[in-house]
Design goal:
151 residues
Length: 151
């Protein structure tokens, strides 16, 4: 029988796939839905793992902080949907794994964007969706969560 935690991660994974597809197709995300799911995720983990609730709440509150400064500098770079999606990832993954997901997503984004820029297919004004990279980074961080939390 599947555990409640595994079912919750599966549901969030399906939302990540959906949100990634929407971001790729339209360039926008459902930020308010991400915030609603972040609250529901925190509520679910309150019942599943009460000892990790404060870590998840702190991660939800601070996960988007590294992206707020670039948003202030270049308003067209980081969308509010990306920030709200990071709040959801923070509530689902916890503090260490959420920041690992952001770091991995940034590396994956660079690995995709640099070759495109070198070929002249994109420039500084081009808009590339970030949620798919966040979703992949979150999946990788979730897979390595036990190793990450050992630090």
């Amino acid at each position: 029988m599947l555990s409640a935690r595994l079912c919750l991660y599966a549901a969030l994974g399906l939302f990540a796939l959906y949100e990634s597809a929407v971001d790729l197709a339209t360039g926008t995300t459902h930020g308010n839905l991400s915030l609603l799911l972040a609250g529901a995720t925190l509520a679910a983990f309150a019942f599943l793992e009460t000892e990790s609730l404060s870590d998840r709440a702190a991660a939800a509150a601070f996960a988007s902080a590294p992206l707020i400064l670039p948003r202030r500098i270049a308003l067209s770079g980081i969308g509010r949907g990306d920030l709200k999606y990071l709040v959801l990832l923070g509530s689902a993954l916890g503090f260490v794994a959420a920041f690992a997901a952001l770091f991995l997503a940034s590396l994956l984004f660079l690995a995709a964007a640099l070759p495109l820029a070198a070929r002249g297919r994109i420039n500084a004004r081009s808009r590339l969706p970030f949620v798919p990279f966040l979703s992949l980074g979150a999946a990788l961080a979730l897979g390595a969560k036990e190793s990450l939390c050992a630090f």
